[in-house]
Every structure is written in structure tokens, then in C-alpha cells.
Amino acid sequence: PEILNFTFPINAGEGFFFCLLSMCVSSFSRMIPMIVQFSILIILHSSLVLITTAEDYKCLPLVLRKTCCWINETYLARNVIIFASIMINFLGAIINILWCDLDKQLPFKNLTFNSSVYFTDICSYPEYFVFTGILAMVTCAVFLRLNSVLKLAVLLIMIAIYCFLTETIYASLFLQYDDINHNGDTDFLGTKEASLLLMAMFLLAVFYHGQQLEYTARLDFLWRGQAKEEINEMKELREHNENMLRNILPSHVARHFLEKDRDNEDLYSQSYDAVGVMFASIPGFADFYSQTEMNNQGVECLRLLNEIIADFDELLGEERFQDIEKIKTIGSTYMAVSGLSPEKQQCEDKWGHLCALADFSIALNESIQEINKHSFNNFELRIGISHGSVVAGVIGAKKPQYDIWGKTVNLASRMDSTGISGRIQVPEDTYLILKDRGFAFDYRGEIYVKGISEQEGKIKTYFLLGRVQPNPLTMQPRKLTGQYSLAAVVLGLVQSLNRQKQKQILNENNNSGIIKGHYNRRTLLTPGGSESAVQAEAADKTDLP
């Protein structure tokens, strides 16, 4: 539970005590007893203040500081300290009446009023004791966190003691005061009755004040809990949105839009001098795809393509391929780029990411062969790789799409379209970079490349056979990217929205007295091809318990 700091109320209680002291000094005629009694009470009050504030003073003994911490952390100990502070003030208020000597009071019934004779002692002012008692009662209101029922119990005890004293032992003080001031007239409310009524009014006021404080504290607690819950939901929703954005855009581009307030019409573009571009297509998929009743009008064909693309995306989650970004898929063609990260443009090994792209293309061939074993197909990839300068940018304000443009992109696409199934084709410039980095090639020859050969003539191309030297990062563990997959992000986003909808529905039904809920369902096609139930905006109504 939250530790309640009650040091200030203790100090305020001591302030009320000194108010009582000043009243007594100005009106009490017995100075020696007053000095003794208030010296004792001051010592008691100072001890309470010292115990409750010892934690803030390093010069005090360790035992005292530990005791202070224990009191602040223990509910019962705090209440004991509070009651002690209230009782000290109450004793300071009530002890004055105990000094009154009833035997020395004048027989007022047979005397005429003489102010010089009567008004020489504080005992001649019985309402004074009531006012000091009320001041002691107000001390309860200082302790804001004290339970209102406990406050009521303390106040009732104080009033009961006052009633006992005024109705029994010291009743003559009030009767004599009324006789002197009203000459025996009975058509008025007596001082004793008025004093008790005044105390009762203060009791109700302090109790009502405590009830209001409790209500405010409980409401504040609920509001803080609700605000904390809403902040967590907003944080969760923001994380889902950020993950969704990072699935659409590369990480450095997503940071560009998340870290700064941008206008929807702002254009993002970036030029790169050293990137690698890869196109990987499945030439046989067009012949494989058909819309018949056996494959559910082509749905099963798309399901298989979805599994292939999902496996390719899973490869990107490996540590060795962290420099590669997937750009898009066009039909059965997969496009990926390496070296887009700004850090890689300033790296000492300028073309290290191109080696990773070559390894990735080899891994794609291995992945498609594994898929063929399980799906009883004979798909082959046709891959083209090139490198050079490109321009990257985000097109679209409300539906952004990241893409790259340039001669390098066109050349990589032509390496794919003019290639051979099951082979990885690269131009001579790319071959010259990779051949000294542990890769083996087979010279194909000069081929005509549309859009480039018209100006530069035929292009010498090579087939990438594989690695001669092993990649030191091949055995690196994979990053845990499953939780950031698009399906996982969409699932979390929909669940978060549904929780908000259900909470809103429950609040509306609670306000109307009808406790009902709505649970929504939607099915999402995951990259693996399976259907997972996702709470969404559909339609069944269910009675909540």
C-alpha cells in the first residue's frame, strides 16, 4: 500500500496545541500548575514530531530513524501516533477545568452582580472550556488520511467526557454563570446546553469533512487507476502502430517519421551511392496458378505463395541478414535491397552488405527446395542481383509506400528477367566485387539487356554458384522477430481496440443498469497459412456474468 506521509499533520497538531497554550497563558490565573502541565505536554508533542521526522535527519541515531521508517510504513503505528497527538491537545484543553476549586466559588444565588468580584478567575468563564475543547476537536480535521469513522469515534469520546464533566462534577459552574448573566431568567438556552449543541455541530462538521475527504481520496484513486490504465493502453496502441509502421517501412525511415512532427504532405527521399538490389521470381508459378473448384478458386495456390513469401521473410530475421530490407512483392517476384541503413553508408567495409545479399539469394534457393519437398512441387527461383546508386523515398501521404528507383534497380530486374531458372545472375561489376570475397562464379557471356544495351552495348554476366569460403555469421542465432511479424502486430492491435470497445460497452451498460457485453470475432490469415481467431468488430452478443 501507498505510504501516507503524516508529518505535516503532526506538526499542524502541534500548532493547535500552541494555540491552546496561548489561550491559557492569557486567561489562566494559576501560572505554576499551568507551566508544569504544558511543559509535560510540550515534551510529549516534541517527542511525536521527532519520531515522525527522524528519517530526514542523518545525525540522529539509526534506531530512531528505523523506527520512523517503520511508523511511516505501518498503518496501525501511524494511527497510534495520530491518536496520541489528538489526545495531547485534548488533555491540554480539558485539564484547565480540573484546576477549578468549586468550594471557593462564591454563593451567587444571594449576591448581586459585581464584575470586580466575579470575573477574576477563568473558572468564572465556563464557555472558555468549551471553546478550548472545540479547538482540540478541530485537530482531528488536520489528519486528512484518518478514517472518518475513527474520527467520529474519537470525537464522541471527547464529547462524552465533556458531557460527564459538565453534567455532574462541574455543572454548578454553568448554573452560576447563567444566574449572574440572566438573573434567573429561564426563557433562554442555557450555557451548558448551548455548549453541548456547539460541540455537536462541530462533531458533525468534522465528520462531514472527513467523509468528503474520503470520497475525494477514493475518487482520486479510481481516477489515477483509470488514467494509468488508459496511459498503458495508449502506450500499447502506440507500440502496435510503431510496429505496424516498421513492417511497412525500413527501421531508419520509420524513425524519421516517428521522432519528428511532420506534415502529411512532406516528401521523404534519400540518395544512396552503394546499395545492392535483388529480384527473385518464380517463373513456374503462373502455370501453377489456376482457379478451379479443386483449389478453391485459386485460394490454395495463393496460400502456398503466402507460405513461400513468409519463409523468405523469416530468413530476413536472421542476424546475418540484418542489413537487408524487403521492399515489396510483385506477384511471385520478391524484391530486397541491402545497404539502405545510414550506418552502412559510412562503414569501412563498403560492400559487406552486398555479400550478405548474395548469401541471402543462396538461402532463398535452399528455402524453395525445402518447400518443394513438403508441397510436392518443383518450383525454381530465378534471381538477379546488381549494385550501385539508387534514390529511395516514401510515396503517398495516407497510404505510404517505400520504394527505390534508379539504373541499378532496372539492371537488377533485367538480371532476373533474362536469367535462367535455378540460377543467380549478376553483371560484371557485381562479379568483380564478390569474387574476392569468397564466392564462386560461372561466366555466362554477353547478353542483350533492354534499356541498357542500347547505350552501353551488351552486358557481361555471371552465374553465382555459391560460397567457396564459409560465412562466419552463418551460425549466428536468429533474432526473435516473431512478435513483430505483421500478423502478430495486427492481432495485438485488434485485441487492444477490442478491449477499449468492450470497456466502453460495459461502462454504457452499467450506466443504464444493463450488464451485457459484446464479443467480436474475426479470422486473420497468418503467414503460415493457418487461420487464427482474432477479436474484432463482428457481432455476437453474450451476457456477462
TrEMBL record:
Annotated localization: Membrane
SUPFAM superfamilies (alphabetical): Nucleotide cyclase
Annotated segments matching region Disordered: 526-545
Cellular-component GO terms for this entry: plasma membrane
Gene Ontology terms: biological process: adenylate cyclase-activating G protein-coupled receptor signaling pathway; cAMP biosynthetic process; intracellular signal transduction
Entry keyword annotation includes Nucleotide-binding: yes
Topology in the lipid bilayer: Multi-pass membrane protein
Keywords: ATP-binding, cAMP biosynthesis, Glycoprotein, Lyase, Magnesium, Membrane, Metal-binding, Nucleotide-binding, Repeat, Transmembrane, Transmembrane helix
GO MF, one annotated term: ATP binding
Reported cofactor(s): Mg(2+); Mn(2+)
Annotated EC: 4.6.1.1
UniProt-recorded name of the protein: adenylate cyclase
Protein species of origin: Micrurus paraensis
Lineage: Eukaryota, Metazoa, Chordata, Craniata, Vertebrata
